[in-house]
């Protein structure tokens, strides 16, 4: 919920001070083992950031400032205080350009961007980008839409499969994992989309590039198992 007008708005300095008061530098080594960029990071766990965001309330202006900071924990907190209905394309693009870690990317997509009416338009735009985390954002957002946009028609997800095939040869770790994630989530949405996703995965498995073969094979393992249990 938005903060009450009677409550003084938090400044960026206030929010950062709250984050620093909760810092857990001893957690950074473990985070690094999971591929999380640790430069500037305070070591806060997602449940802590989620609870802090709930306590702070929605504040879109503050969210944009947090997202523009160089502190990964602050960028994740931004996703919990943003007001998705207020996003502009320019704001979403600027936010994505500042991402430097897979978790800040995924939290922004899954907790903020996915709830924006502009979300669908950002998927092809970001999927075509060259920087690693901007491209990842396109596919992380596609995965989030497959989970959260319950009203979307199957055709919208089928139309994303050519984007997956176009990016599947990108061997960068955080791109190929997001491409795989999007493919799996589309296939898990329903039986019809599972058929479409599996056909896409089969095509990828036949390619020469190691990235595409891995994406296809991994998706098929999950989707076939899901089909057998359906």
Give a nutshell description of this structure.
Helices cover 67% and strands 0% of the residues. It is built from 14 helices and no strands.
Outline the fold blueprint.
Layout: H1 12-21, H2 28-33, H3 46-56, H4 60-67, H5 72-81, H6 89-97, H7 102-111, H8 119-127, H9 132-148, H10 154-158, H11 161-167, H12 173-189, H13 191-205, H14 210-229
Rg estimate, integer Å: 18 Å
Tell me, rounded to a whole number, the average pLDDT.
Answer: 95
Biggest sheet architecture: none
Shape: globular
CATH topology call of the largest domain: Serine Threonine Protein Phosphatase 5, Tetratricopeptide repeat
Briefly note the structural class of the backbone.
Answer: mainly alpha
Report low-confidence residues grouped into runs of 5 or more: none
Q: Distance between termini? A: 38 Å
Strand tally, please? 0
CATH top level label of the largest domain: Mainly Alpha
Strand residue content: under 5%
CATH architecture title of the largest domain: Alpha Horseshoe
The helix content, as a percent range, equals 55-70%
Count up the domains: 2
Order of helices and strands: HHHHHHHHHHHHHH
Number of continuous helical runs: 14
Describe this structure in words.
The protein is mostly helical and 230 residues long. The chain folds into 2 domains: 1-82, no CATH class; 89-230, Serine Threonine Protein Phosphatase 5, Tetratricopeptide repeat, CATH 1.25.40. Helix content is 67%, strand content 0%. The radius of gyration is 18 Å and the shape is globular. The termini are far apart. The relative contact order is 0.08.
